[in-house]
Amino acid sequence: MTANLLAHAPHLFCCGIARSGAYNRTLTPFGFQSEDRTLWEATNTYMEMSPFMAADKIEKPILLIHGEEDNNPGTLTMQSKHFFNALKGHGALCRLVILPYESHSYSARESIMHVLWEMDRWLQKYCAPNTSGLNADLDHVKKEDSQKSANLEPKVAASGGEVAEVEELEHGVYFPCCYDDNEI
């Protein structure tokens, strides 16, 4: 869904995060979700529902996360690997994280924490900087509120703790365990 939205409605989002996705529906030719027709009966539907076919249209940063041992027949790990390579080939800003020993749903505490860290880092980098207009609006509202009530203190939520930076890979693959880029 995320990849399709970035391909077909890029004006709505500043970035995307897609987990364990099915990016090329032609790899599931005998149906998917509620589509009962085969690829040969509904070729256009399969093509339109495949973000892989629109990889050249994705201009916003996208983070792909997938379990290395995904056993869901519609979302095998190769879907993310092929989609990542297609995006990279078209110059898209993308990142692929493969979680070792994980299937379609992630269960290891380390994997879950790593996914949360990756998503937070991605959103901080590609979404938070795009809130400058929102911040200007909030500053205006705060000024008005402070004029109305001198005792009004703005409440700020912040996340604590520093996380050591991992090697920066703009167009790279990051494996949280012992894998090399050349294994893709």
TrEMBL record:
One of its GO terms (molecular function) is serine-type endopeptidase activity. Keywords: Hydrolase. The keyword Electron transport does not apply. Residues 1-127 form the Peptidase S9 prolyl oligopeptidase catalytic domain. The keyword Glycoprotein does not apply. Coiled coil: none annotated. Pfam families: Peptidase_S9. GO terms for biological process: proteolysis. It comes from the Eukaryota. This is Peptidase S9 prolyl oligopeptidase catalytic domain-containing protein. It comes from Opuntia streptacantha.
